[in-house]
Amino acid sequence: xxxxxxxxxxxxxxxxxxxxxxxxxxxxxxxxxxxxxxxxxxxxxxxxxxxxxxxxxxxxxxxxxxxxxxxxxxxxxxxxxxxxxxxxxxxxxxxxxxxxxxxxxxxxxxxxxxxxxxxxxxxxxxxxxxxxxxxxxxxxxxxxxxxxxxxxxxxxxxxxxxxxxxxxxxxxxxxxxxxxxxxxxxxxxxxxxxxxxxxxxxxxxxxxxxxxxxxxxxxxxxxxxxxxxxxxxxxxxxxxxxxxxxxxxxxxxxxxxxxxxxxxxxxxxxxxxxxxxxxxxxxxxxxxxxxxxxxxxxxxxxxxxxxxxxxxxxxxxxxxxxxxxxxxxxxxxxxxxxxxxxxxxxxxxxxxxxxxxxxxxxxxxxxxxxxxxxxxxxxxx
Length: 381
What we know:
Blueprint: H1 5-14, H2 18-30, H3 39-44, H4 48-59, H5 61-74, H6 78-88, H7 105-108, H8 124-134, E1 150-155, H9 169-182, E2 186-191, H10 195-206, E3 217-222, E4 225-226, E5 229-231, E6 243-245, H11 246-253, E7 266-271, E8 304-308, E9 318-319, E10 323-324, H12 325-337, H13 343-353, E11 365-367
Parallel strand pairs: 1-2, 1-3, 3-7, 7-8
Antiparallel strand pairs: 4-5, 5-6, 8-11, 9-10
Helix pairs in contact: 1-4, 1-6, 4-5, 5-6, 9-12, 10-11, 12-13
């Protein structure tokens, strides 16, 4: 599940012994810099979650991390401080990593995704050259005058647990919708759905009549997540079953349940954590049965390609103003390269953007690929 800065602060304070936590509180109220935390307020605090809320209410999220690091080091809890700094980027900016804080470009030497550019259109000459050279290796693309392309976009932003709000996800929705429409897809949008509602939205989408006149589809889902699960807005300790199994996406769109998309590319994009790990590790130098049936068999699941925001068991990151890094990099790469590259090469270019990710290690992951041909989008044609 995506972790907030509040979560990391709570985890840091939970790592303290009772004695160290008492020292932390005393040093906190002894700070001379304004604004100051009143001793009477600290004395009312019973749980570390309440202490973190007090820190954030007093200092704002960014400064709360910096103050916590200062106090932790003052009381000699250097390892806890180091872990907190690694998990939040030291509070360098108001960024949320789905949620880890990542320093801004000036601090990290790393550029945020640029989603402002327009999608470069393909030329008719390029399309004809590719078709001439690769022919049957390419999925057929219908002319935009006759096709009915549909895309599904689900974005969970507001959750019952207010601390789970996915700040910046609105920007992801804006960027993704703009890209999909530029690629020629009408976008079916849903916001803030439960697991059951997400399942029904995909089932309904799979039944749309427009798919018969389409050459492909995109399904984009953005939410909190766990491995093989996308969480609904009611998910929590009292409602642990509010989630969408990732398998259900493929089940609803497979040949049996969505025959209109048979032999057509189905692109699945999932922006969600798949666990709590940070995706990094220290590396040191040192013969078949006889059958007789009427009709024809078709592959049950075919022509899918999926890009997930991170590898299994790991977290992914989101900027509270600019949106998630997966969606940002994807929009940037598509805008610059979709006119000349096929979908799997585009995904590879997105993954390349994550190779030198600052401070943390997030790697987008291709999964469940059953494309038998090359899928060129030919934007503008």
